[in-house]
Amino acid sequence: MTDRKIRVLVAKPGLDGHDRGAKVIARALRDAGMEVIYTGLRQTPEMIAAAALQEDVDAVGVSILSGAHNTLCPRIVQLLQERGMDDCLVLVGGIVPKEDVPRLKEMGVAEVFLPGTSTEDIVTFLRNNVRPRA
Amino acid sequence: MSEVKEIASPEQAAVERWEDETLAPVLQKRPERKKRFETVSLDAVERLYTPADVLDINFDEDTSFPGEFPYTRGIHPTGYRGKLWTMRQFAGFGTPEETNARFKYLMAEGQTGLSVAYDLPTLMGYDADAMLSEGEVGKCGVAVSSLADMETLFDGIPLEAVTVSQTINAPASVLLAMYLVVAEKQGADWRKISGTLQNDILKEYIAQKEWIYPIRPAMKLVIDTFEFCTRHVPKYNPISVSGYHIREAGSTAMQELAFTLRDGIEYVQWGVDAGLDVDEFVPRISFFFNAHNDFFEEIAKYRAARRIWSRTMRERFNAKDPRTLQLRFHTQTAGVSLTVQQPLNNIVRVAIQALAGVLGGTQSLHTDAYDEALALPTDRAALIALRTQQIIAEETGVVNTVDPLGGSYFLESLTKKLEDGALDYFAKIDAMGGMVSAVEKGFPQREIQESAYQYQKAVERGEQTIVGVNKYQMGDEQSKIDILVIDESVRAHQIARLDEARARRDNGAVANALEKLKLAAQAGDNTMPATIEAVRAYATLGEICDALRDVYGLYEEPAF
Questions:
Q1: How far is CA B206 from CA B123, B200, B499, B513, B544, in A?
Q2: Which fold has domain B59-460?
Q3: Contact assignment for B373 to A72 by CB distance below 8 Å
Q4: Structural domains of chain A, ranges and CATH numbers in brackets
Q5: Sign of the C-alpha dihedral, residues B315, B317, B319, B322?
Q6: Which residues pair with A13 in a beta bridge?
Q7: For residue A66, which residues of chain B lie inside 8 Å, CB to CB?
Q8: Backbone phi, psi, residue A10, to 5°
Q9: pLDDT tens digit string along A3-53?
């Protein structure tokens, strides 16, 4: 049996153009042997969910530094669920106040990675939490 | 076969003697802590700098005196003994009313200039009620959709007396027009008002990524503002060529220096090509650099910037006016260096970074607030940031003499090294046909991405230390601090204001003005007069940008 490579969509929703983190993460995941698709900037939640479905990804990594996470992240989770992608993990990174983390998790975000997180931690999290496929 | 051996200079011979007699026995007993010492840009730093390292630096030609070519030691002969730098804290959040109150608070506490942060919809040329603005209104800065918002923002602030810097790029010409109309309504004389528009569109494609139109028409809009300001607002700086964002996106100090100055050269070239006189418009071009953690590398960067700029203006553009040769710059401490973990440590980082900006001879300075890795600053955090500058200015004594570190073997050698590295980048970019072409090819973008990745890896290997993040961590790290929360009511408030402005105005006049703007854009005429007319009629930012979107189209970033 060959292991399917973990597939991750790295997404930048909203108007925020700060893509340093998203690009560093995308490259680190690639270097760790995962298949990474980067959406580019200014994607709506609908575009992100559609791309996740089309690319059949195991996880969506959402990078937001503008403060719009409470509006955008729950919608991405909801749209993924509507498309039957309940197993797809949604990870969030960026400038997110700690107080917002529990609420985001309640709404279905698998994990929130705050500034200073090592890329190794994100790789490990994905390896441990992505559901193996038949 | 005879071997030609280079004869060591007496300076080099002296170093070799010291290495043999004094250094070697010590290294034998105790090796150094690591093999390679490097700057935050991952550039190697030697053990010791001596006269041997500055043999190729000529005092008269390379260093010289402050106020004299090539201005390495500063543009003013008296440094800060004559005038301190302008303490210009970047501020903006929520509604125009809230930001107006923060401006008045900062000025009451001794701040000497204003700097406006706009929210993302404004930066992208969308009104508060646009679909894409949802969740973003007032979050990263103040929301401004029409002249009515601008009037409120500067209510009670006399624009003829206060200099205002505006961080706005893709729609900069529209915000400039709004600013000029507000000034006019206050009774201010355009010929007397001063201030700065960021208006640096090249670094948007390179690093900050808040673009609207394709690169070449966007450059044309920048040149329109140069032309207009040269004629009508002669004391205003229509551009602040910015390395700040290039650095924040992950570049090294050398890349920041090289790409920023090469951007500056590109604007000058486009201005010259449009028929402007170098000695008329270039003196109003200002710069904006980052102040990062590596103290000496930063100071060397500012000194190298002045030297490169003056030489380039003289050699490439035959500039004559000393003001054309003098690089003036604003500095902001490195937001990217701030940590969420143990946030009060950020106060110390900011103080040291700010000190580098001052020792590098900055004209104005923004010090970041300690809570900026978490949210926009609270009043308390913003006040400590301002007090940091006041302590440097009035307690440390570093302002008492001009370019106090000039002549340091290390600093002079580093200044030269950064200069040489930047000139190598210039040669590469020139070979690509200039900066616009280099950006279209993704060259600076890729260089920056690579540096950002290498830095992250160095942090993860523990080669670069971030206190509280990869060393000296504490259990539940995020100390409890109050943060500023912008709630969703800001958007409703702004939409109500927008509806009100639309209801009051003459819609026929708006439609006419927008049509005129499109015609000017299509004809390649200067768009500023038509933009001002549209603003006067209370056309909104979104409407004006839509008119230009119709003519110019939208930029799509290729995958680099």
A1: 16, 11, 36, 33, 25
A2: TIM Barrel (3.20.20)
A3: no
A4: 7-127 (3.40.50.280)
A5: negative
A6: A43
A7: 120, 136, 139-140
A8: -95, 120
A9: 789 999 999 998 989 999 999 999 999 999 999 999 999 999 999 999 999
